[in-house]
User: What shape does this take?
Amino acid sequence: MNSLLTNEVPLSWYLLLSAILFSLGVLGFLVKRNLITVFMSIELMLNAVNLSFVTFAHQWHAVKGQIFVFFVMMVAAAEAAVGLAIIIAVFRTRATLAVDRIDLMKL
Amino acid sequence: MHLILFVVFAGFCLAGAINLLLQSHPINSALSLIVVMTSLAVLYLLLGAEFLAAAQVIVYAGAIMVLFTFVVMLLNAGREERTLGSRSWRVVGFPAVVAILATISTVILKAQGLGGARLGDGLLAKNGASNIETLSTVLFTELLLPFEVTSVLILIAILGAVALARHGDGEPASGSAERAAGK
Assistant: This one.
C-alpha cells in the first residue's frame, strides 16, 4: 500500500507481467494449430523476456541489460525473416499451414 | 501517474496477448500482437529505456509485424481448424503453463530487494548523459565486436530468406507451368 501512496510501481509487477506474457506465449505455442500463429507466440515469448531484461536493467542501473535487449531484437528480426521464408517454402510444397498436416518427419 | 500508465498499458498487453490466443484467424492474432508490442514500448519508456522504446516500435511493431501481416495475406491464411492434435495439446498445455507461471511467480514474489519505478526514472543518468548516449558509448566501444557480428548475422539472414522464399533456379513456378500446359 505504501508504494501506491508514493506513486511508485514495484518492479515485481513488471516481472509478473513478463511472466504472464511468457506463459501466454507458451500456451499459444502449444495450443494454436496455425503455423504463423505458433510463430507469433514465439515472438510474444521473446518480448516477455525483453521486458524482464529492461526491468532488471532498471533495478541495477546497468545499461548492458538494455543492450542485450537490443541484440535480442536484432536476432528476432533475423529469425522472423528466415522463419517466414521457411513458412512460405513449406506452404509452397504442402499447400497447408496446419501444423498437424506438416508431418513429413514424423515417425 | 506512473501507476495509472502501468495499469493501463499492462492491461492492453494482457488483453492483446489473450486476444492473440482466442482469435482463430491469423490476421486478428497479428493485429493483437501489434497492440502487445506497442504497449510494451510504453512500458519500456516508463522503465527509462527510451532507445529501446523507439526500437521496439520501429523494429517489432513496424518491421517484423509488417512481415507477418504480409505473409498472412500472401498465403491467404484462413481460419485454423480444430483437430485431434489441438484437443490433446490443450489437455497437456494448460497444466504445463499453469506450472510454469506458478514457478516463475513464486520466484519473483519471494525475491527480496526489488525496487520500484517512478515516472521520469532514468531519463537522465547521474552524470547528465541521456540513456541513448550511455547506451551507444558502451555499444560502440566495449561491445563493438558483437555489434558487428550481429550485422553479419542479419546479412546472412537476408540472404537465407531470399534463397528460401524464391522459386527454384530460373524455372518457372510449377503452378504457372501447369497453367501454361493446360492452355
Q: What stands out?
A: Confidence is low (pLDDT under 50) at residues 175-183 of chain B.
